[in-house]
Here is the input.
Amino acid sequence: MTGTDSQHADGEHPSRRRWALQMQQPLPSSTVFDRFAFLVGTASAVWLAVIISLQTFRYAWSVLLFVPVWAIMAYLVLPRLHRMLSDLYVPDYFFGRTRTADGLLGDPVNLGVDGTAAQLDDVMTRAGWHRADEITAASTWGIIVSTLTRRSYPTAPVSPLMLFGRRHDVAYQQEVAGNPKQRHHVRFWHCPPGWLLPGGAKTDWLGAGTYDTDVGLSLFTLQVTHRIDENTDIERDFVVQSARDADPAVRVRELHDFTTGYHSRNGGGDRFITDGDLPILDVTRVVVPEDADPAAAPGGSRSAVLPEEGHGESLRTTAERSIRRAPLSTFFAVGVVVLGALLDLGGLVIGMATDADIRRLLADGPADQATVLLVVIGFGAVVSIAQLLMAWSVLRRGRRSRAVLMVLLAIGVLSTAIDYLDGRAALGFNGTLLAACLQCLALLALSSESAGAWARRRSTAHRGS
Here is the structure.
């Protein structure tokens, strides 16, 4: 064996093997902890959905409770069940399909790109494509308002799809006639170093382009989502042609029969067909302007590491930026925790002010009983205040605060369930049911993949700095 052959055998191939085996390595302890919290939250959500459903038979107006039951099932229970089950039966290696955040098979991979992140971004921008916003509370509210009012939102967020074990690196879109329900969009993932396509071809980026035709309910999870046009090849060719029209330096090579032509359904239940070809855009000859902002390109500092962390900015500025960039799941969980803590504090204050037995015991009762009551009330107030402080810390990417808060929420839900099974707590239209629902919602949101990845990104950035 020659020196070159030896270097090739000991260098590139082991590197690819190591990357491929990463998908099969034991999960990190933090991920295991999150998934255990998923299990607790999922079981709690099913239990609460059953309790709420039973209440709907008692009063005529309680039919409205089917709305929260649908919300719990569509956004909490079914996605978690899909996630756990799909880990067992969906292959965890590349075969030309993306996966949804819930683990279902998603859109087909139908596009490749050779070139740098800056070259890709320059071509797509000049072709009239807009970078999609990240999914935050503000962008989610924006797309809801734009859909209901039919206002244009050219940078509306797209749902996350997974490839190589991670969500897309960048997404681009084009609205159709200012209608947020209809849009061209394509997601891109940067290929791992040294990674080869099936058959030995190589490319720098892989993409999945589809055309949204309307908004409807997902067939698999019952969630509100965009519906796609079934002929994904038309959208693939549209992306290719728009890039070629934007810059004559763009070249195209095509891998015919990259996959067998087939028809299937994506994660939303929409049927699609494809001929299996993979066009690869070659943008390596594109000249990026010298004054281009490198952070604006996919993979630049704006999308990789927060520039404000550890670089001398004030704590207030860091907190404000962190809150603005928090994923919707984290923002929602913090809001629910804050609401629950405020309701608990309000209940303590109102109870001390209006409950005659409490006032009589504190004023004229035995000293030892009054002391115990004050300790219980004080402990409840301390727990509520601690939850408020931890919620604030979670918004600032407090990894430990998130873990502690998840443990407290799980304990709260399990305690309510035990009291209900023992007959010590009645779950009806009362504060106990409301508190259990809030704790369950917050636990599921905090233990989601987006919330976990966002919290862990800070420690990763600090280790790399």
User: Anything to note?
Assistant: Confidence is low (pLDDT under 50) at residues 1-15, 17-25, 300-318, 459-465. The radius of gyration is 26 Å. The longest strand covers residues 205-217. The chain is about 50% helix and 15% strand.
